[in-house]
Design a protein that fits this description.
Layout lengths: L1 E6 L8 E6 L2 E5 L8 H9 L8 E5 L5 H4 L2 H6 L5 E4 L1 H31 L11 H8 L2 E3 L6 E2 L7 E7 L7 E9 L2 E7 L22 E5 L13 H15 L2 E5 L5 H15 L7 E4 L1 H12 L6 H8 L10 E4 L2 H6 L7 E5 L9 H8 L6 E4 L8 H7 L7 E4 L2 E4 L3 E4 L9 H8 L9 E5 L3 H13 L5 E2 L6 E3 L6
Parallel strand pairs: 3-4, 4-5, 5-6, 10-11, 11-20, 12-15, 12-16, 13-14, 13-15, 16-19, 20-21
Antiparallel strand pairs: 1-2, 1-22, 2-3, 7-8, 8-9, 9-10, 17-18
């Protein structure tokens, strides 16, 4: 058995980890790389394995950086099964179609400009038909239910454990039995935080021999998740007093629903005034409906609010927008309102238009509530938060940032450094033979490696893209 790291290796996006066992190839996640346009174009189109030879995909969750390149895999010949939790399947069924549609619309917009300049035209990464094709390959398995991958025999099993990151997110436990010995291999996907809105806390998968772990916030500490309500209330009151719009780039799945949940709580308590809130993302609208279908993922507090009659996904002041013409009308609104739109890293979709129309008005506030990878427009916005006259480009045009930039790290759905260390302290160090850190920028990975070493862990590796490692069988 061996593993090859094909994505999210010394970077955050594009998770893809290839396991070879008994002559079969299992792909853990198939995420889209997000960053510099030219680099992303190349990374997302050129796999370092043959997609037609992949036996199956085991998917941790539905975020685009973990699932977003599945249609490209399909377009290049993959026809195996995609195993996921039911909620992940349902989210992917809308997210992958939405991703294809957004790409096609963004390409049309960009190509109009390129055509006028006589520049070569672009093609979308994949089509709606590719998305439909791979959605038809999904097989849904509930948390805690051990299952056998078709065609790999009874000695290889997989179990999903709740990762507490987004709806349906899972940690993956792969168990391989060989001559009376068992190899237990873990993959964290993205680890969530305790006390996040709506979702249950991360579960424990049990002891493992080897583990591939995310390291997004190694060396970085968040505000406690329990401070989300107070931090949001303070930020909104400050923004209300300025009299402008509040523009929120947000991931359509998870973060948007959590934000609406918190706004609904604050409004129902009278902590903040009721202002118009527009969720301008067709995907967010559909994803919210998927959330309503999966209460098995909810925590006790969410159940209690539902029992009290609180509409956790929006009071009367929350309007969900699908039609593009209604989206354009938001530009004409006068006075204070909030516009929540995708994509979360500001790389595509309607948020780009809202930023372009509002970023140069000092009355407005841009509220950052999610992770922004290197070389994304979202990261540029964070850089602008403490600088005057910062300039950035949207759709190729230059803008001066005059709106206030507010970063709320308490909303992060990723475990911070201390939470990751706490997560690892659940494992028996004598059984854990090797730790692979992925899904993190190099500085954060080195920080987490140091902090884990200081707590007694050893054999911690930070693989580069293309690196391969073999595993030995150990009896647990």
């Amino acid at each position: 058995m061996k593993i090859k790291f094909c994505g999210a290796a010394q970077t955050v996006t594009g998770s893809q980890h290839l396991i070879e066992i008994n002559g079969k190839q299992i792909l853990l996640d198939c995420g889209m790389f997000q960053g510099k346009r030219e680099e992303s174009f190349k990374m997302n189109r050129q796999f370092i394995y043959d997609p037609a030879e992949i036996h199956c995909v085991v998917l941790s969750h539905a975020h685009i950086d973990h699932a977003g390149n599945l249609p490209t895999l399909f377009a290049k010949g993959f026809r195996g099964s995609v195993y996921s939790t039911p909620a992940t399947r349902d989210l992917c069924s809308i997210m992958l179609l939405d991703s294809a549609y957004i790409q096609q619309k963004d390409i049309e917009f960009v190509n109009k400009r390129r055509g006028k300049k006589g520049l070569p035209l672009f093609n979308p990464l994949y089509t709606v038909e590719d998305s439909k094709g791979v959605i038809g390959l999904f097989k849904a398995i509930s948390y805690g239910q051990k299952f056998i991958i078709d065609g790999l025999g009874e000695n290889i099993s997989v179990t999903f454990y709740d990762a507490g990151h987004i709806l349906g997110s899972s940690q993956i436990l792969l168990e391989v039995n060989n001559n009376g010995k068992t190899l237990r291999f873990g993959y964290t996907g993205d680890i969530g935080r305790k006390h996040l809105p709506i979702l249950k806390d991360p579960a424990f998968m049990g002891n493992v021999n080897y583990i591939v772990s995310e390291s997004t916030y190694g060396g970085i500490l968040h505000e406690g998740a329990e401070t989300i309500e107070s931090t949001l209330a303070f930020t909104l009151k400050e923004a209300f007093s300025a009299g402008g719009k509040i523009i929120v780039p947000s991931f359509s799945v998870g973060r948007t629903q959590e934000l609406i949940y918190e706004i609904s709580k604050l409004t129902s308590k009278g902590t903040i005034p009721s202002i118009p809130v527009y969720v301008d993302s067709p995907l967010s609208v559909n994803a919210t409906e998927v959330f309503k279908m999966h209460p098995e993922c909810f925590d006790d507090e969410t159940y209690e609010l539902i029992a009290k009659g609180v509409n956790i996904f929006g009071l009367e002041n929350v309007k969900y927008i699908k039609d593009v013409n209604d989206s354009k009308k938001l530009n004409d609104i006068k006075g204070t309102c909030m516009i929540i739109s995708a994509s979360g890293m500001c790389e595509a979709g309607r948020i780009l238009h809202h930023l372009a129309n509002n970023i140069e008005d000092p009355r407005n506030t841009i509220m950052i509530i999610g992770y922004m990878a290197e070389n994304t427009l979202g990261r540029e916005l964070i850089k602008a938060s403490d600088k005057r006259g910062y300039r950035l480009k949207i759709f190729g045009d230059s803008y001066t940032v005059k709106a206030k930039i507010k970063v709320l790290n308490a909303f992060s759905a990723h475990a911070d450094n201390n939470e990751l260390v706490e997560y690892f302290l659940q494992f028996d160090k004598s059984m854990l033979k090797k730790i692979f850190l992925v899904h993190g920028e190099p500085a954060q990975q080195e920080n987490l490696k140091t902090n884990l070493t200081n707590t007694g862990f050893s054999n911690i590796l930070i693989p580069a893209r293309g690196d391969e490692y073999s595993f030995e069988f150990e009896l647990i």
